[in-house]
Amino acid sequence: MKDFKLENFQPIVSEIVAIEIAKAPQNVREQYSEVLGYGAEQLNVDDEVDILTEAYEQAEILTPKFMEDMIHIALATVANVDIVVSWNFKHIVHFDKIRQFNAVNLKMGYKELEIYSPREVANYEEE
After folding, report:
1. Are 83 and 114 in contact (CB under 8 A)?
2. Domain boundaries, the chain
């Protein structure tokens, strides 16, 4: 994360990320701790997130086996985040999946999400 200027952003994490990070390698846990040190806001699942997650499932964007991935996107959508950054190239940072999530978001009255890999935002510099 040395090239990434996290102070330009308000990091937002979820209770699901915290559970996933606990099982991650030490270097990933250290980077997560660094993100938390920037005053990360933690999101929690509520009824609105559950309804949007169910809409993703009904649209068959992902199978129920990958419910946590749908919850990640629903949490970000409901919280009105600007950018989702993920290493999950199969279910989240994937052109077709982004398009499908955003179609449901728009149908449900939410804005579209910008979804990128950490490499895509690593060298971000404010204008």
Report:
1. yes
2. 6-121
Nearest to 86 by CA among 60, 52, 120, 54: 120
Evaluate if pTM is beyond 0.70.
yes
* Residues in Cβ contact with 53 at an 8 Å cutoff, skipping those fewer than 6 apart: 67, 70, 71, 74
CATH fold of 6-121 reads: Rossmann fold (3.40.50)
- Residue 75 has, within 13 A of its CA and on its CB side, a CA count of 19
Consecutive 10-residue averages of pLDDT for the chain (127 residues): 59 87 90 86 95 98 95 96 90 95 98 92 63
Count, residues in the chain: 127
Q: What is the pLDDT of residue 108?
A: 98
Cα 73 to Cα 27: distance, rounded to the nearest angstrom = 25
Q: Cα dihedral sign for 45, 51, 56, 60?
A: positive
pLDDT at position 5, please? Answer: 58
What six digits make up the tokens of 61?
């964007």
